[in-house]
Each structure stands twice: as structure tokens, then as C-alpha cells.
Amino acid sequence: MSTPITRRAWLATAVQAEPAPVTTHRAAELLAASPWPTSGRNTARKDLRALAARGVLAAIDTAGRRTYTTTTPERSAA
């Protein structure tokens, strides 16, 4: 039996697949297409903040806007 994925783990994986840093708005869009489609902007903001606090994502402040990106280099499929 497989363990169900958590919303934050799902979001971390989705952010790591994004080609550019993710804003709260983009995270809310990603969650809208997830198994948790009713999660809103505030939930996305809290999830991004929690993932950054755990070191899963890195918060970057640019021109007064906070974005999030992966902290680990992409792994090879080999």
C-alpha cells in the first residue's frame, strides 16, 4: 500500500518542475490543478513559507517580490 502524498510535498515537486522561480500566485495556480483544487492563495503562501523554513525551497526577494525556487540541483535520471 502506498503512502498518500501531502499537499506540501506535492507543491514542492511542482515548484521544482517549474522553469522559473514561483510566486504565490503561480503556486495557487499549481494547487488549483492539484488533488487539492480548493486550496487558495493564503494556503499557497503558508505552504511556500513552510517549505522554505524546512530548507526544501529557497526564498528569493527581487524588486520587492518574494519568489521561491528549489534548493537542490536537478537530479539526473541516470
Fraction of residues in helix: 40-55%
Strand order within the widest sheet? Answer: 1-2
β content, as a range? 15-25%
Distance between the termini: 27 Å
Structural class: alpha+beta
Report Rg: 13 Å
Order of helices and strands: HHHEE
Write down the overall geometry: globular
Query: How many strands appear in the DSSP assignment?
Result: 2
**Which residues sit in consecutive blocks of at least 5 with pLDDT less than 50?**
none
Average pLDDT level: 90
> How many helices?
3
Report the major sheet: 2 strands, antiparallel
Task: Kindly describe this structure.
This protein is α+β, with helices and mostly antiparallel strands and 78 residues long. Helices cover 42% and strands 15% of the residues. The chain is built from three helices and two strands. Strands 1-2 form a two-stranded antiparallel sheet. Strand 1 and strand 2 form a beta hairpin. Helix 1 (7-17) crosses helix 3 and helix 2 crosses helix 3 (41-53). 18% of the residues are buried.
Could you list some keywords that capture this structure?
single chain, 78 residues, alpha+beta, two-stranded antiparallel sheet, 2 strands
Furnish the topology, listing elements before pairings:
Blueprint: H1 7-17, H2 24-32, H3 41-53, E1 57-62, E2 65-70
Antiparallel strand pairs: 1-2
Helix pairs in contact: 1-3, 2-3
What is this entry, summarized?
The protein is of the alpha+beta class.
